[in-house]
Design a protein that fits this description.
alpha+beta; two-stranded antiparallel sheet; globular
Length: 408
């Protein structure tokens, strides 16, 4: 039976191969950071074989008002939007309506004459939908570097909450790429462009498509591009910076915006994202609802980076031990990073796992070998990398038994 946590809960953590004693370390460690004012609070949930072995709401939903964190707290999930939109594209591919190997220009004609660099040299190779999915499009984020191209991008108002996806891609089509398509992994607005491709192919707004085709069927009742009405009172807030007296800038999700950012616009709960992850771990199906076939999930969770791929200047510093670079043993699939080899990275994990996180502090990973899902929700941008490392170490330290059965 599904609970308010999104999945059934085990009677005891030991039923799913987790140590109760070691799980208490996680609660205590997060509590220490809350007490010393390093972060406001968090929701962390661990599921194995389809059942939740650990789910805790720790600290404050809103420290300024004294509101306690709850399991149904709504978070700005930022770039954890990207796997949802990527799945939407793969659903359209399964229907024969979208070819991920095709040029983006087939769906967005203004992308047919792209240029590279401030010299605006005509691109040698077309940008494909696969490039959007794996971040080899040549696009970038304006704020993640000071290259001449990114300086040009900053003048284009690309984060305008009042723009539509159609208007966004119109702006991007007029700007030069940072790299030749297919040559370089550069974290970018690729998934925002992919969101527009989904709109063009489906004939729906991205918000409507996700609601009707993904979150609705999966029962992700609190995941959307806005959390208005009664839901606004459940939205988590970051801490006020003691030096500036202000909160770090975060999107106002209490109101509807025209821009449905495929790269980072969704808000939702840990329970909802657990359901999304469980569907992927199950090979595309949850509770009798199948969104994609097992082979499609396997394709998404495979490394798609070319053997000679280069990396943008900030790839290693932004993602650290979890960067999709060879020396860390990771690659990048269609919507998320994937672990290719054991060792290499200093944080624990398993070959075949796939994961991603958001700039606001959110993070998830799916470990098929351990039949495990972990979802971390917090709104503390400065703590995001530290908490990705911390939760991996503490969660894997709590796994004391291999599971020998499969869900269903």
């Amino acid at each position: 039976m599904t609970t308010a946590l999104g999945l059934p809960r085990a009677e005891r953590p030991e039923q799913v191969g987790l140590s109760s004693e070691r799980l208490e370390r996680i609660t205590a460690r997060i509590g220490e950071d809350v007490d010393r004012g390093a972060m406001p609070g968090a929701v962390l949930a661990i599921a194995r074989a389809g059942r939740i072995g650990y789910a805790e709401a720790i600290g404050y939903r809103d420290k300024e008002s004294g509101a306690a964190m709850r399991l149904d707290t709504i978070f700005r999930i930022a770039s954890m939007t990207k796997p949802v939109v990527s799945l939407g594209a793969m659903m359209l591919a399964e229907q024969g309506r979208l070819d991920i190997g095709a040029p983006v220009a087939e769906y967005i004609p203004t992308f047919s004459e792209l240029t590279v660099g401030v010299e605006r040299i005509k691109a040698k190779r077309t940008m494909t939908v696969q490039d959007l999915l794996r971040h080899t499009s040549g696009l970038t984020y304006a704020l993640f570097g000071d290259s001449p191209v990114q300086m040009l991008w900053r003048d284009a108002n690309l984060q305008d909450e009042n723009q539509t996806n159609e208007e966004l891609v119109g702006k991007l089509a007029q700007l030069p790429l940072l790299f030749e398509p297919g040559t370089t992994w550069e974290y970018s607005m690729s998934t925002d462009v992919l969101g527009r491709v989904v709109e063009v192919v489906s004939g729906q707004s991205l918000a409507a498509f996700i609601a009707e085709q993904i979150t609705g069927p999966l029962g992700m009742v609190d995941t959307a591009f806005a959390a208005g009405g009664d839901k606004a009172a459940r939205v988590a807030e970051p801490l006020v910076d003691k030096a500036t007296g202000k909160k770090p800038p975060m999107r106002n999700v209490g109101r509807e915006n025209r821009w449905h950012s495929g790269g980072g616009g969704l808000a939702g709960t840990a329970a909802d994202y657990l359901r999304f992850c469980q569907m992927l771990l199950n090979g595309g199906e949850l509770d009798g609802v199948r969104l994609v076939a097992p082979k499609t999930v396997a394709l998404m969770a495979s490394d798609h980076l070319p053997p000679n791929v280069q990396y943008g200047e900030t790839a290693r510093t932004r993602f650290g031990a979890l960067a999709p670079v060879p020396e860390m043993g990771y690659g990048f699939g269609l919507g998320f990073a994937v672990r290719k080899v054991p060792g290499m990275s200093p944080v624990p994990g398993s070959v075949g796992e796939f994961f991603w996180g958001g700039a606001t502090g959110t993070y998830f990973w799916i470990d098929p070998q351990e039949q495990m899902i972990v979802v971390l929700m917090l709104q503390a941008p400065d703590m995001r990398l530290a908490y990705r490392y911390l939760t991996r170490r503490l969660v894997y330290a709590s796994v004391t038994e291999r599971l020998h059965w499969r869900r269903r």
